[in-house]
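User: Can you predict the 3D structure for this chain?
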Amino acid sequence: MNRLPLTVAFASPERTPLFRAGPIGHALTVGLALIVLLSSAALALADDWSVAALMAELAQHKTGTAHFVETRYLAVLDAPLVSSGELSFSAPDKFVKSTLRPKPERLELDGDTVQIDRGRQHLSVELGEHPELGALVESIRATLNGDRQVLEQNYAVTLSGTRQKWVLGLVPRDARVLAVISRVTLSGSGGLLGLVEYQQADGDRSVMAIDNVGGQ
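Assistant: Here is the predicted structure, written as structure tokens:
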């Protein structure tokens, strides 16, 4: 890149100088140089933020508890459905979602078994018998575990933003899953997950906001 001579910045035969060369001009020049250097350093740090770096941060949290508010937008309804409750996670493979409002419901993932309790109803599902459900489960479990390999087996993964405010995009690789869920978007800060959004292929979507309470 060609640079303008300092005489253009400090003075020109046809115009009054913006400022005169000397101690003040030197200080301004040094200040501008420092700004450029600091900006370059910040960009370099931003470039270091990668999927691998995010997974490493997430993997540091072995357990966690949180409150959640889930909003579901369904085409057949005029207003969204809102539910809330508590989440808990214990690495590597136990996850519990306890819905408290508007109606109690408990979903527990332990290994490859999902159990759902809703009132008097009880349902037990083996993920190995339902690969589509398994892929959806892994979008959360593998992210919380910081397991990049499992994520990339099931999804095309993209990452944007910074360490303080990142967005992880997951597009299912399996056509059967893609026919149900077109995209999963997760966002957070550092090693904490703050939002999960499922975009369904039929246009419906759900957004879960997570307020982390504690963990290790």
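Confidence is low (pLDDT under 50) at residues 1-21, 24-47. The domain at 51-215 is CATH 2.50.20.10 (outer membrane lipoprotein receptor (LolB), chain A).
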